[in-house]
Structure formats: C-alpha cells, structure tokens
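Hi, here's the filled form for the chain we discussed.

Project: internal
Contact: R.S.
Residues: 103
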Amino acid sequence: MFDKLKKLMGIAYPLSGGPEPVIADASEAKQKIKNAEKITTVTVKPKKPTAQKPKGETKASLGKMTKKDIDDLAKEKFGVELDRRLTKDKMIVAYMAAQKKAK
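And the returned structure, exactly as it came back:
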C-alpha cells in the first residue's frame, strides 16, 4: 500500500537496496502538466428566485410587542381599533384575523 502511495507521489527507491528515496524525473512531471486538459471556463448558474410571501406579522413577532404597540399597528395597517381591555393573546388573535381579512 505504501509503495503505491510513494509511486503516486513520485518517490521511488533505487533497485540497489538503499533506503534513500529518489525523486522521479521532474521533466516527466512538467510534460504531464503541459499535456493536461485545460479548463476554459466555469459557469455558475444563479438560483431561480423564489416567490416571496407577503410580509405580515406573526404570532411570535406580535408576542414581543406590548398591547399598546399591537393596537397602534392594527390602527395603522388595517384601520381596526382593538380593545385593549382584552388579554394580549386575544388581541393577537384579533390582529391575525384582521390581517387575514385584509389579504
């Protein structure tokens, strides 16, 4: 196995039995490189653009807001005034319904 690896790397031992490695003829390697196939160009095709979904608020993004922020956003985007006496979760559900209706 090691003999095959040494042969691939261009290292050969002389037949006289000495452990001194001898590097194969450099002109052979240069000739192989000269005769090698040349790559002209490499083209990379860009990915096809995917259809982007319209951006809307999610339950997670609304959960990070305060009740007042959710109410203000609903007024701004949909013209709907939410009841701030409701819990935040119920306000989020109402906002999502208004968002769905607006689409």
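Let me know if anything looks off before we file it.
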